[in-house]
Design a protein that fits this description.
This protein is α+β, with helices and mostly antiparallel strands. Helix content is 24%, strand content 36%. The protein is built from four helices and eight strands. Strands 1, 2, 3, 4, 5, 6, 7 and 8 form an eight-stranded mixed beta sheet that branches. The longest helix is centred in the C-terminal third of the chain and has 12 residues, at 99-110. The protein starts with a strand and ends with a helix.
C-alpha cells in the first residue's frame, strides 16, 4: 500500500475522476508499482488530514521527463522514453485545464528548472473500476 498527499486544489478533480495520475520526484521512498493499492489524501501529517477517495489500484507506473523553456512553459513530456503527443490531454489527466495551467503550477510549486525527472503514477477512479468489474 502506498499513500500520496495532494494539494487542496486537486481534491475535486480526483473525486470527479478527472485527475487520474500524479507526478512525483524520485526520493528515498518507494513509489507505487502496477497493482499496488493507493491511498490518496490531502493534508497528510497534519491535523487536517483527509482521505480523498476510497483506496484504488495503481494501473501504471513509469519514468517521466518534463522539459521547460526559459519562461517555464512545458515544451515536452516523455513517458517510457516516448514523447506525449497531446500535452493538453495529459495536463487534464493531471487535474489541470491545459498545459499552460500545468506549467504555471509547476513554476509556482517548484521554481525555475530546465528538466524534471520523476515517476508518473496512474490509477482508475474507484467508481469506474467498480463499473467495469460488474
Amino acid at each position: 500500500m502506498v499513500a500520496y498527499s495532494f494539494n487542496k486544489q486537486f481534491i475535486t478533480p480526483i473525486r470527479e475522476g478527472r485527475k487520474t495520475q500524479t507526478i512525483r520526484a524520485i526520493g528515498k521512498r518507494r513509489h507505487a508499482q502496477m497493482g499496488d493499492t493507493l491511498q490518496l489524501y490531502s493534508g497528510m501529517r497534519t491535523a487536517h488530514c483527509m482521505r480523498i477517495i476510497e483506496d484504488t489500484v495503481c494501473t501504471d507506473a513509469s519514468a517521466i521527463w518534463i522539459d521547460f523553456d526559459d519562461a517555464m512553459r512545458i515544451t515536452r513530456i516523455e513517458t517510457y522514453g516516448v514523447p506525449v503527443i497531446d500535452l493538453d490531454a495529459f495536463a487534464r489527466r493531471d487535474g489541470f485545464e491545459d498545459i499552460k495551467d500545468m506549467g504555471a503550477f509547476w513554476e509556482f510549486a517548484h521554481g525555475p528548472m530546465a528538466r524534471f525527472e520523476g515517476a508518473l503514477i496512474e490509477w482508475v477512479p474507484p467508481v469506474i473500476a467498480r463499473a467495469v468489474a460488474a
